[in-house]
Amino acid sequence: MLENSLMGNIQGLYPKTNQSKVPFIGELAIEHDLMFIALTETHLKEEIGNAEIAVTNYTPFRADRENRSHGGVITYVRNDLAPDTVPLLVYSNGQVELLVIKIKSLNLLIFNCYRPPSCTLVNFTKAYREMHKLIEDLPTPMPDIIICGDFNFPFIHWPEGSIITGATREEQDQASLTFELSDKFFLTQLITKPTRKNNTIDLLFTNIQDLLSDHTVEKTIFSDHNLVHLHTRYRKAKDQVDTDTPPSHNRFSALNFDSEAVNWSDFHTALTNKNWDHILSDKDPNAMLDTMLNTILSECQFYVPKRRKPALARHLTIPRDRKILMRKRSSLLKQLDNARGEERKLALSIKIANIESKLKESHEHQRQREENRAIENIKRNPKFFCSYCRRFSKIKTKVGPLRTELGESVNDHARVSQVLKEQYERVFSKPKPSCVIRDPASFFTEDIGLQDHLTNGRRPERSHQATESKFSSWTRWNTCYSSNKVPGLPLPTRPQALAALARHWSGSRSAKTSSHHSCLQRG
Fold first, then answer.
1. Are residues 505 and 358 in the same domain?
2. Are residues 325 and 299 in the same domain?
3. I need a surface site. Which of 180, 356, 461, 466 has the fewest CB within 10 A?
4. CA quadruple 262, 264, 270, 275: dihedral positive or negative?
5. What phi, psi does 174 have (nearest 5°)?
6. Could you tell me if 210 and 293 lie in one domain?
7. Strand, helix or coil at 68?
8. Alpha carbons 152 and 168: distance in angstroms, whole number
9. Which regions of the chain are under pLDDT 50?
10. Strand 108-114 vs strand 144-150: parallel, antiparallel, or unpaired?
């Protein structure tokens, strides 16, 4: 069976959003069993991990645009070929992205390139030199080479490769560099059908003259570019089946030994109480091993819970109605390729557009069902809710701005980190020995001058308020254990300190009251 591949401009994968195109790519990969998928203009950023753009049974290799949005390229390689695949070049200069991988088992190099329409000659020349140097350094005989991507050369007429009017001098120079690379290394451009409107701007250069048996273009609502299906002459490697070795089976795979419900003590006791000498007597080593494992397995069923069957991933559970629509779309696309007459093509295009719209609605309904399920079962199945939030949440937690002790507002990430570090170090640092309070009662009499206030005829309420203010300011939680302030009292001793405060003020007030009464009597 011959291999199929896919290339095209996807105009943003947008993972973790309602407009994510990753499920669509996954469906195409499953439907056509693609060898590789080369996409341009992925709009990915460095903080987006490979897990968020994962396609089942495929390994992604990517080159993102640095410090800017848009741009970027990605190449998915099927997992049976991925172990033999290595990246040779990941390049981005802010305008041109270039990714080169090598599939060793096929002796094949795949270049994936994106050149924006506004690309300058300087940046394209830099990327050209990277490609030229890499190909020039290849050993002889030269491996198979595929250079694909969106070059945005609408002014080139293919298959002749002639530059038509409408291009600037700088654009013509960049096209000339592409022709120079093609001529020097004997590369042929094979895409002849329009890939965006009436222009052929998604190109494929190769040194294999008979690489493609055919190629078809597929219109899609996810991009204004057509996706290009490549029907190559590579043959799928057949898996070698070893008929001599029986398939191995893990008899304990159905049990969940990681569960908290495992009763290890009773399980250990049950195994210890077994008469192993009697169970394993008069048996050869293989029979002894088999008997021992079966005995342990029989005991596990009493003390170890069974493992839940893993749910199929979202991109594997394609609803039946969507599968039917996908088959209809494939059939109509084939009819469109062979159709004659504009009316027939227009009618088929309308049918395909309606099916694309229904497929989009199917994706939206599935996303809504998942959201409802995650919300309804948030208490019974919090893991599913968390995984759903990780995939589709757009919210990012932001720290700051913070206010320093001097009242300064800090919003810079480095400064916020420094302020948090200083606060944690201050709060959890050891107190100075000279500031440690040994007697809680003395805390309320030192430096407060209570007797002076009383003898000077001041109202005890002011002294009371001053002591309360001192107590509250010195025992706030965020100044406890401070290295540069008097530490607050530990929580267990605070009731005693309050009791001492109450006794102190009750005595002071009674003394003041008796003195006041005696003065009245004398008067």
1. no
2. no
3. 461
4. positive
5. -65, -40
6. no
7. coil
8. 13
9. 239-245, 247, 312-316, 446-460, 474-494, 513, 516-523
10. parallel
Local structure of residue 199 (DSSP, 8 states):
B
pLDDT confidence of residue 453: 43
The pLDDT assigned to 267 comes to: 86
Nearest-10 crossing angle of helices 22-32, 320-338: 70
Dig out the tokens for 110 from the structure: 């795949």
In this prediction, residue 230 carries a pLDDT of 92
**String of DSSP letters for 36-91:** EEEEE-----TTS-GGGG--TTEEEEEEPPTTSSS--EEEEEETTTGGGEEEEEEE
Residue type, 436: V
110 touches 148 (CB < 8 A):
yes
Whether 324 and 295 share a structural domain: no
Sign of the dihedral through C-alpha 26, 32, 33, 37? negative
Q: How many residues does the chain have?
A: 523
Structure tokens belonging to residue 120: 């300058």
Contacts with 105 (C-beta within 8 Å, 6 or more apart), sequence order: 81, 84, 237
Q: Supply the Cα-derived Rg of the chain in whole angstroms.
A: 38
What's the confidence (pLDDT) of residue 469? 57
What is the C-alpha separation between 448 and 249, in angstroms, rounded?
A: 81
Task: Report the alpha-carbon distance of residue 381 to residue 311 in Å, rounded.
Answer: 13
Give residue 261's pLDDT: 82
Would you call 203 exposed, middle or buried from its count of C-beta atoms within 10 A (0-12, 13-18, 19+)? buried
Number of domains composing the chain? 4
Q: What is the DSSP letter of 151?
A: -
pLDDT of residue 465: 57
68 vs 45, 95, 407, CA distance in Å?
8, 9, 35
In single-letter form, the type of residue at position 405 comes to: E
Tens of pLDDT, residues 461-475: 555 555 555 555 544
- Considering the domain architecture, whether residues 51 and 111 belong to the same structural domain is answered as yes
Cβ-defined contacts of 275-279 (< 8 Å, 24+):
none
Contact present, 181 and 145 (Cβ < 8 Å): no
pLDDT digits (tens, 9 = 90+) for 69-102: 789 999 999 999 999 999 999 999 989 999 999 9
188 inside domain: yes
Specify the pairing of strand 162-163 against strand 156-157: antiparallel
- Give the H/E segment covering residue 296: helix 285-303
State residue 472's pLDDT score: 53
Q: Which domain holds residue 276?
A: 264-303
Q: Which two tokens stand for residue 408?
A: 């300064």
Helix-then-strand count for the chain, H and E: 13, 16
**Whether residues 88 and 123 fall in one domain:** yes
Q: Identify whether 248 is part of a domain.
A: no
pLDDT of residue 7: 95
63, 98 contact by CB (below 8 A): yes
User: Coil, helix or strand for 230?
Assistant: strand
Task: Based on the fold, state whether residues 283 and 138 are members of the same structural domain.
Answer: no
User: Is 485 inside any structural domain?
Assistant: yes
Token digits of residue 500:
């001492």
Q: Which of 184, 201, 82, 89 is nearest to 134 (CA)?
A: 89
